[in-house]
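Researcher: Quick one. two chains, 925 residues in total.
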Amino acid sequence: MDTPSGAARSSLGPPSALPASRIPIQQTWLTTDAASAAAILLLLLAFVVWPVLRVLATSLAGPAGLTLGNYADFFSSSRLLRILVNSLVVSAVSTAITVAVALVLAYSVTRSDIPGKRFVSLMSLLPLISPPFLVSLAFILLLGRNGVITQALHLDWSIYGFTGIVVSQVFTFLPQGYILLVNVLGAIDVSLEEAAENLGAGPLTTLRRVTLSLARPGLASAALIVFILCMTDFGNPILIGGRYNVLATEIYAQVIGMSNFAAGSAMSAVLIVPCLVAYLVNACWVGSQSYVTVSAGARMATRPMPPALRWTLFVLSGGVALGVALIYALIPLGSVVQLWGSDWSLSLRHYAFASSAEGAWPIGNSVKLALLSGVIGTVVALVTAYVVERKRPPGRRVIEALSLLPAALPGTVIGVGYILAFNVPPLLLTGTIWILAASVVFWKFPVAVLAGINALKQIDPAIEEAAVSLGAGSVRTFARVVIPLLTGAAFSIFVYFFINGMVTVSAVIFLIYPGFNLGSVAILNQVENGYLGAACALGTIIIVIVVGSVLLLRALVGGDRVAVLKL
Amino acid sequence: MRISLDRLTKRFGASVAVDGLSLEIGAGELVSLVGGSGCGKTTTLRVIAGFERPDAGEVRFDGRVVNDVPPRRRSVGVVFQSYALFPTMTVAENIAFGPRVARWPAPKVRARVAEMVALTHLHGLEERYANQLSGGQQQRVALARALAKSPEILLLDEPLSALDAKIRLRLRGEIRKIQQDLGITTVYVTHDQEEALSIADRIAVMRKGRIEQVGRPEEIYARPRTDFVADFIGVSNLLACRVVSARDGVVEWEGERLRIALNGGQDGERVLLSLRPEKLAVVAERAPDDGRNRLHGVLEVVTFLGPFVRVELTVHGRPLWADVPHATGAILERKKPVTLAFAPDACVVIAATGSEAD
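Model:
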C-alpha cells in the first residue's frame, strides 16, 4: 500500500483527490445527524418529560418537603375514590360498546357488500374532524333538560350523567376504533376465510374460528387505545356528565377552580397510571401477539354471505351511520333556531354572539393556533421520523419512546404539567400562543411521528444512498430527495395538527390566557352559561373551517395524498 | 369424479376473466391450467371451487350441475397460492379443521390427522404454528389440510410459486405421487409451463379467458396449434412463410426456399412454422447435402445452459435460436457466420395465423 510515494500518487490526480474530499463530507454528515438528534431529544425532554416530572414533583411536595400526603388525601377521601371508580367504570363501559360498534362497522365495510358502504365509512370517520364534545352537545339538544325528545315525551329524565358520557364517548371515539379495526380486518387474507369455507365451515364458524380469532390482538389493541381516550376525555364529561364526576374534570376543578396544584397533580399522577398501563400492555404485549402475515399477499375482498347476516349488518351499520349524521345535523340546526326547546322559529341571531363579550374572536385565535401548530408540528415530526427511521443515532430508541409517550398522557395532565413547567424562566411561556402550540404539537406528536415513519418506510433507502453517493450531504439529501417524496405525508400531518389545533380542548383549557380564548373552549363557556344556540353556532363554524381547509388542501395537493390521520 | 366446464363466462366489471370456456376433466385425471397472468386460470379454478359464481355456463361434477352449491358442500379441497394456513392454529389443528367442522368423532379425526401427517411427511411438526415452518413445510400442511376430508376433487392454485427451485422440483414430484396414489381428480393452476409439462396428464393452455389448446404434454409441445402455444410452451422459432408448392412441400421464408412436411394447404397461402431450437443443428458450411434444409446466419449470443448451449443467430435479419451440444467446436464465436440444418419434418405448421404473437 505505501510503496508509491506521495508525489507519485498526487500526480495521478483523481485517485488521491477522492479520499481527501470524502472525509469532510463524512464529518459534516455525522455532525448534522448528531446535532439534529440532540435537538430533538432536547425538545422531547423539555416538552414531554419535564412537564410530567413537574406534575410528579408537585404531587410529592408538601410544606415540609417531600411527602405522600397529597396521595393520602386522595385515597382517604371517599368522594375522590368514587371519582376514580367513576372514571374506570365509565371508560370500561364506553370502550366495550365503542369496540363492538366499531367491529360491526369495520366488518360491514371490509367484508360485506351492503349498500351504502361509502356512507357508513364516511360517517364512521366524521367525528374525527370536530371538537370532541360536539356529540355531547347534540345529545343535550336531543335529550337534555330542554331537549327535543325530552320535551316531546314529557320526560322528567335527562341524559346528563353516566348514560350521557357513555353514548357521547361511543360516538366520539368511534373513528379511532373503526380505523384500527378496518386495518386489522383488511390485513386478514381473505383466502383464510375461503379456506375455512372450502373445508366445510359455515359463515358463523368462519367468523368465530378464523376472522375473529385472527382479529383478537387487533381488538385488544383497539380496546386499550379507546380506553385511554375515554379515561382522558375531558370535553364530554364536563358538558354532559352532570353530577357524575370523573378524574379529568376533577383535575380541572382543582387546578383552575381552586388553584390547588398539589391535589390536581396527585390526581393527575393517579390518572396517568391506568393510561400508562393500558399503553404499555398495548405496545409490549399485544404487539407481540399479532399474527405475522404468513401469506404471500393478502387479498381484501367482499365475501358472499347469507342474507340474514348481510341484512343484520346493513341495519346495524346503517343505523349507526344515520345516528352520526343526525348528530352532526343537529349542531347547525341548533345554531339557526331562535331558542332551542321553546321557540323553533329560524334565526341567525346566535351568529352575532351577543352572549359573550369576545364574540367570534376565539375562532380566529383557534385558526391562528391551528396554523402555528400545523407548521411547527409538521417540521418537528418529520425531522424526528427521519432521524429515528433513517439516521438511527445511538439514542434512537429513547427518542422514539419519548415521541410516542404522549399517547398515554391525558390532555389535562399535559395542561397542568405545562403550567407548572413553563411559568418560570428559562422557559417562561405561559401567557403566550407558544405554550398552546407546544401543547398541541407534543400532545399529538405520536400519531404524526408514526405517520412520518410509515411514510419513510415506503421509500427505498437506496434512493437516499444514491443521493449520498452522488455527493449530496445529509441536509441536502433530506431537503432535495426525502422531503419531495414525503409531500403527501407532510400534508397529512399538517392537516392532523391543524384539525387538533382547531378542536382540542382538554390541554389548552389550562393554558389559554386573558384576551386569548379558543373556539373550542368558547363552546364550553357558552354551554355552561346556557347559550346552546351560540355554542352550536361556534361548533358549526369550526366544522365548516375544518372541512373547508381539508377539502382546500386536497384540491391543492391532489386527492388522496391528504389522508385524515387516525387517532 | 368428472368435472365438466360448459361455456363458462365470468366477468369482473367490464373485463371478462373467463370467456365461454369449456373443458372436460376425467375422473382421476390431473389437468393443468397454464397461461400468463390475467389469462383467467385462477378465476376458472375459483369457479370450480365455488368462490366465484359464473355469469354464464355450467360447472358439472359427474354430470350434476353445481353452480348453486356453496363451496363448503362441494367436496373440493383447495390449496391456495398463499397456503392460507390459519395462523392461530397448529399444524394438527389446521389439518383437523375440516373433519372437526364436519363433526367427525374425535378418535377418527385424530387418526385422520396422523394419516395425513404421514402422507405429507410432516412428522414431528404437528404442534408447530404456521410461522414456525419453512415454505415447503407450509405447502405440505396446506395439501394435508385440503385432503383431510377425503374430497373428490383437488384444486391447486400455483402451489409451488413461492418456493425455491430445488424444493419446487421435489414437491412437484410428491404432489404428483399423492395425486396418483389417491386417484383424485385434480386441477393444477400454474404460470410455469415447465411445471405443467412435467406434472399434468393433460394441459390446457389459456389466454384471455379462453383455452388456446388442450392436450397431453408431449402433444402440446410437439404439435402446438397456435403461435401463442408454440411460444408459451417451451421455446420456439416462429417462421412466417408462404407456400410455394403445397404438393412438393416447399415454402418460402425470407427469400429462402425450405422443404417441409405440409399436410394440404394451397399454393400462395401464408403459414406460420414453429421450429424448436433443439431441432436445429450447427453444421460445417460446406457439408454435403443430406436432404436437410440449410440456413446461413451470423452468431450473436451464446448462452451456456448446462446440458447444452443456446445460440442466438441472425438469419436474413431475423433472430433464430438453436440449441446445440457443447462439443460443436470452436465455431461458436460472436459475429462469425454459422450454417444451420434442420430436417423437413422438424417444423410444425401452425394453422392459426390470425393471432398476434404477444
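The longest helix of chain A spans residues 14-60.
Researcher: Thanks, that's what I needed.
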